[in-house]
Amino acid sequence: MPYLLISTQIRLEAGPTMVGDEHSDPNLMDFLGARKRNMPGNNFCEYYVNDAPRVVLDKLEKLGYRVVSMTGVGQTLVWCLHRE
């Protein structure tokens, strides 16, 4: 899975950081120390870590991921990463 989206709420830029969905690579989620949760009202699960996005980005860089783009969507910050 060469593409990855991570995100956080603007008011929570110190964490938690969403790092995957229910179909994400379990080995990668393990490496990040992510936990799976289902938020009330959602019909899907997501993985999150308590780390700040900067810490997550540093960890992913060690695995060869590079930021392709970053944007703000409403009150959410989103990074798209890719690994060759």
TrEMBL record:
<dbReference type="Pfam" id="PF06399">
    <property type="entry name" value="GFRP"/>
</dbReference>
<dbReference type="InterPro" id="IPR036717">
    <property type="entry name" value="GFRP_sf"/>
</dbReference>
<keyword id="KW-0472">Membrane</keyword>
<protein>
    <recommendedName>
        <fullName>GTP cyclohydrolase 1 feedback regulatory protein</fullName>
    </recommendedName>
</protein>
<comment type="similarity">
    <text>Belongs to the GFRP family.</text>
</comment>
<dbReference type="GO" id="GO:0005829">
    <property type="term" value="C:cytosol"/>
</dbReference>
<dbReference type="InterPro" id="IPR009112">
    <property type="entry name" value="GTP_CycHdrlase_I_reg"/>
</dbReference>
<dbReference type="GO" id="GO:0009890">
    <property type="term" value="P:negative regulation of biosynthetic process"/>
</dbReference>
<dbReference type="GO" id="GO:0031965">
    <property type="term" value="C:nuclear membrane"/>
</dbReference>
<dbReference type="GO" id="GO:0044549">
    <property type="term" value="F:GTP cyclohydrolase binding"/>
</dbReference>
<keyword id="KW-0963">Cytoplasm</keyword>
<keyword id="KW-0539">Nucleus</keyword>
